[in-house]
Amino acid sequence: MVILNSILLILFYTLTPALVIHLCNRYKWIGAIGPIMVLYGIGILFGNISWMGEEMAVAQDIATSATIPLALPMMLFSSRFTHKEMGMQLMVVVSCFLSVAIAVVGGYLLLGHHMEEGPKVGGIISGMYTGGTPNAAAIQQMLSIEESTYTLINSYDIVISFLYFAFLFTVGIRLFRRLYGERTHVNLSDNDRKALERDISQSKQNPYQGIWQKSGLLAMLKVIAVTLGVVVISILHTLLYPEEWFMTVLILTLTTLSIALSFVRPIRELRYSYDMGMYLIYIFSLAIASMADFSNLDIAGGLYQLGFMTFAVFVSLTIHAILCRIMRINADSMVITSVAFINSPPFVPMAVGAMNNRKVLITGLSAGVIGYALGNYFGVLMAKLLSLL
Fold first, then answer.
1. Of the four listed, 71, 121, 181, 250, which is most buried by Cβ atoms within 10 Å?
2. Residue bearing the bigger pLDDT, 72 or 266
3. Could you give the CA distance from residue 354 to residue 377 in angstroms, rounded to a whole number?
4. What is the Cα 297 distance to its own chain's centre?
5. d(CA 250, CA 232)
6. DSSP letter at 269?
7. Quick one: pLDDT at residue 73?
8. What's residue 197's pLDDT?
9. Where exactly are the structural domains of the chain?
């Protein structure tokens, strides 16, 4: 029975994205929703009705931990990096930190005083919403917060993240693009702009047609070989650093090596590289959504904590949007850096797929790595600040 369940789970996680892609291409109304949101909905439904226990947890862990290290190099190989964007990246990162700080302070003044460990909760979500779950876990140890409180934080984060993505992927991205006007960065060269327009045009078509032909299979094998080489080197590099730095070093190394290889023309022009990476992101989206077990949530027992976290996420998004508008940052760069901070770098490719804009992938990953690196310091600093209010 265990073996049968495992086989069924493997088939579910690997084949469902293919079915969803087919439906999105065949039916316009499903295509308007987008593969990411459809997979999110299927994953949440499956996670809350599935009869499988331990096998499902193992499958989820494998699907979420294995897909991202493979997907990032595949998607980055086709990147076209320009130094003109570095100044813009610095501005949006500063905007993210400032937005989270203001939102957390405001949420604490409204709701935090009603919680026994309000300052500590504020510190943890500050690290979580600028870095990610590894930062939140580290800050929890540093601040010695109650385990029950920390468990609630992680449970509520699933609900809030779903609402956050639901807003962005249904109306948020379109709204921000309309308000900001310019979709791409104004400093792009003519060649980069034409290449981006070509990528966007291609993304609206079915990219997997012909992938199972002989030439397509050979192209896939080339992508897999180069990707595995980058992943192995990156993992070996992480062994030189303390274990708690694993995720930060891994993401940074993967990003650096992949960007370097993107300057090698044969690598940059590998067929199906980006699309294979995107398919892995679809698997990741399905797996991460299936982890949302709403039956374990104690919403009534922690309304102030839930409200505090919800306030921090959506107010920080609003403030970040206002600051980026003032600084004339384009809408897609604003959105992708918000995703990188609120949900961490592994979710960046998922958002890139929803936006159909490969150009912001590097911007999002760069911001996310900085958030990973500084999230622990920022979280502890915010906890100390909140304790004085």
1. 121
2. 266
3. 31
4. 23
5. 10
6. T
7. 86
8. 54
9. 81-276+297-387
* Token pair of 250 as six digits: 């891994």
Going from the C-alpha of 328 to that of each of 186, 294, 324, the distances in angstroms are: 9, 40, 6
Fill in the amino acid letter for 90: L
Rounded to whole angstroms, the Cα distance separating 253 from 259 reads 10
- The mean predicted confidence, pLDDT, of the chain is 81
Count Cβ atoms within 10 A of the Cβ of residue 15 and give its class: 0-12 exposed, 13-18 middle, 19 or more buried: exposed
Closest residue by Cα to residue 196 from 211, 179, 182, 210: 182
- Cβ–Cβ < 8 Å for 72, 255: yes
Residue 104, amino acid:
V
Helices 214-238 and 273-289 cross at an angle (nearest 10°) of 60
Residue 356 falls in which region: left (phi positive, over 0), alpha (psi -120 to 50) or beta: left
How remote is the C-alpha of 76 from its chain's centroid? 15
The pTM of the full predicted model, rounded to 2 decimals, is: 0.70
- What is the token pair recorded at 179? 């308000």
